[in-house]
From TrEMBL:
<protein>
    <submittedName>
        <fullName>Monooxygenase</fullName>
    </submittedName>
</protein>
<keyword id="KW-0560">Oxidoreductase</keyword>
<dbReference type="GO" id="GO:0004497">
    <property type="term" value="F:monooxygenase activity"/>
</dbReference>
<feature type="domain" description="FAD-binding">
    <location>
        <begin position="33"/>
        <end position="363"/>
    </location>
</feature>
<dbReference type="InterPro" id="IPR002938">
    <property type="entry name" value="FAD-bd"/>
</dbReference>
<dbReference type="InterPro" id="IPR036188">
    <property type="entry name" value="FAD/NAD-bd_sf"/>
</dbReference>
<dbReference type="InterPro" id="IPR050493">
    <property type="entry name" value="FAD-dep_Monooxygenase_BioMet"/>
</dbReference>
<dbReference type="Pfam" id="PF01494">
    <property type="entry name" value="FAD_binding_3"/>
</dbReference>
<dbReference type="GO" id="GO:0071949">
    <property type="term" value="F:FAD binding"/>
</dbReference>
<keyword id="KW-0503">Monooxygenase</keyword>
Amino acid sequence: MILSRTVVIKKVFGKRFNIDLFIEVMSKLENIRILIVGAGIAGSALFRRLKAQGHQVDIIEKSPTLTNEGAAICLPANAMIELKKLNLVDQVMACAHQVNQIEYALSNGKTLAKASLNDAPLNKAPFVALKRDALMNILRKDIAEEITLDTCLTHIEQTGESATVTFNNGYTQHYDLVVGADGINSHVRGIIQPDTPLLKHTVTNWRFITQKPSQDFQPVYYVGDTSLFMIYPISNEEVYCYGHVIDPTEQYYAMPVKTALNAVFANYAAPIKHCLDNMPDNDHIIRGGLKSVAKTESVYNNVVLIGDALHGCPPSLQQGAGMSLEDVNCLADQLADNTLDLKKVLVNYQQARSARVAWTVQESNKIIKLAGLGQSFIGRLVRNFIIRRTGPANVVGWRKLLAEKI
């Protein structure tokens, strides 16, 4: 059991001093020692919360500098709800752009379905988007100097009560808890799941920021036969663009990024042409491939996974940040409960997150499969019928997440 200083004062100094009681209580006072691996969204947010709780927390980052991978980020309502718990909503809203509607359209611009984000339960919090580096600057404010850079783990040895970690500099340290927050290509997950490779979706994707096609622009997802292009406003002047194509032979991945983008989306509607004509230089276009974790088990004795290390998957539901922040607050809330020992904390965390995490990964993968139906004529008819009947696929998922049905 971990006791707070307030509890100590009440137990010891609220009555006649008792040395035996003092020793007993002080032995329970020592907060647990925690290592956070990864200083991205999940790691930085968790560090903020645990430091505020008084735990002994170390945070490491494998990169030699605090760079930000990714152009921009979309934050659905559940992400904003979690940011409110971190007292960061005002800071995020000051540099974000709020949207009120989602549209799915064919590649020629013809609307398939629209959904308002002002209807319950979607209206529980604003839906916004902003540059990724702006979000990271907010999360890392006042903690950047405490992040140990150019550092990663090479080994974790667990006992019943602690974990001994070996760092890439050969140094070893004992921790009560190791938190893997090091992304979808998590080294921590690789150590504790050595025979569980990521699932690859044979999809190449690109992300970049460019000028907005027109004023009063709401997010639109254009779906083609084997490709998709999203335009999401992040300010009054700029939009976040995401495009992907089914690419089993990686022919488009091998092309120069601008050549590939123009080849895949040449016949798309005018707003996409505007974005392609105003693409940034190659260094500011991020190319990748869609992957998913194979397992969503979060606790391995004294090691716990959060963020994309736990539930990395395609951005179909745009839940990378939202689910990560839910992980952070769930784990931190459990650690703040002074009546629980660490084992019970981790049991509670896994039980609280298990179904929701597994559903989110499965649903995100399912949406990718839905998009893939466009490869055949019959498949396109089925896909388009489903979208017209049920609405934008991501909004369908958001409703379930916000209604807390899972």
